[in-house]
Amino acid sequence: MKTNCEGCAGCCVDWRPIADAPSDHERRGPGEPLDDAYNFVALTRDEVARFVERGLGDVLTPRLWRVDEETAGVVVDGVRVAALAGYPAFFVGFRKPPKPIGPFGTARRWLSTCAFLDPDTLQCRIHDRDTYPDECASYPGHNLALDAETECERVEAEYGGERLLDDEAEGHDGLMLGPQAVGAKVFAYPDPEELTGIVERLRRGELTETDRAAFVGVAAGSKPGSLSVDEERAATATADVLDADSWAGRAIRQWADAAGDVGSAADDHPSGDAVEASRGAPQTPGWDDVDGA
Ligand code: SF4
Ligand code: SF4
């Protein structure tokens, strides 16, 4: 697997506003996501715990799914959400604020973008860090392993050029589908009643810090291979998320304040340095000395 990522970031950005063909293909899971994020990066329990330890818990957010009557679920706020043994199931991934992004040589627009993408170089700020998620490190290996269209191919189809240079599947050890995912990548919220009101806020895109922290805590306290949650670890992680005040969390707030409508031209925007690097974000190297991804 080899990719040409310079000037792309197609897998880190929701670029549906500048695509002709609609796409839902990345939205995997047992049903329809209640959020509208695209290219959601599902983190493992250990990755969630590491982000929390590093003070970056304020960048994390859950994903739940609406399911049909045939699929295991539980009703919360009038929505049948996917469930494991009656407990609402969820992923944890990254928040995606609007940033001024010009992928594939396009003019910059406000596009929902991973909190860790440098909007100027279109490189990942944690690429060489121990927090870099397995899903990102192995992308698009999971898609290739499942014989599913990759974001790289979608970019090629819409904007031309060669992005997927070698489609041999590799690096998909973290695929983690099936029962081994429980408590390791798919988590189970232990008390569905606590989610009353939260599911509705998730649908409206209005989750609060407290809402997000509760899910992140449960994920960090989960035990791989089981539905049980270490309550003490979960409570500690939840408190750590509520205390977090990371560069990325603060940048999310500033991007949200600065942004125009999603998909609109970003004519007069602050730079990534002004919003992110000034708050302590790791710098990205640029593309001069980078080979491929
Ligand atoms: S963590 Fe980095 S590679 Fe992964 S989606 Fe975010 S910006 Fe992209
Ligand atoms: S992995 Fe594919 S979609 Fe993602 S930045 Fe590289 S070429 Fe683009």
How would you sum up this structure, described in words?
This protein is of the alpha+beta class and 293 residues long. Helix content is 26%, strand content 15%. The chain has helices at residues 45-53, 134-137, 141-145, 151-159, 198-204, 209-221, 231-243, 247-258, 272-275, and strands at residues 2-3, 32-33, 60-63, 65-66, 73-76, 79-84, 87-94, 98-101, 109-112, 117-118, 123-124, 164-166, 187-188. The strands form five sheets. Strands 3, 5, 6, 7 and 13 form a five-stranded antiparallel beta sheet that branches. It has a two-stranded antiparallel ribbon with strand order 1-12. A hairpin with a 7-residue loop joins strand 8 (98-101) and strand 9 (109-112). The site of one iron/sulfur cluster has 14 residues, from helix 4.
Key features of this structure:
293 residues; alpha+beta; 5-stranded antiparallel sheet; 9 helices; 26% helix; 15% strand; binds iron/sulfur cluster
- Cofactors and ligands: iron/sulfur cluster
Strand content: 15-25%
Biggest sheet record:
5 strands, antiparallel
| Cα shape | globular
Quick overview of this protein structure:
By secondary structure, the protein is α+β, with helices and mostly antiparallel strands.
Topology:
Elements: E1 2-3, E2 32-33, H1 45-53, E3 60-63, E4 65-66, E5 73-76, E6 79-84, E7 87-94, E8 98-101, E9 109-112, E10 117-118, E11 123-124, H2 134-137, H3 141-145, H4 151-159, E12 164-166, E13 187-188, H5 198-204, H6 209-221, H7 231-243, H8 247-258, H9 272-275
Antiparallel strand pairs: 1-12, 2-4, 3-7, 5-6, 6-7, 7-13, 8-9, 10-11
Helix pairs in contact: 1-6, 6-7
This protein binds iron/sulfur cluster (2 copies).
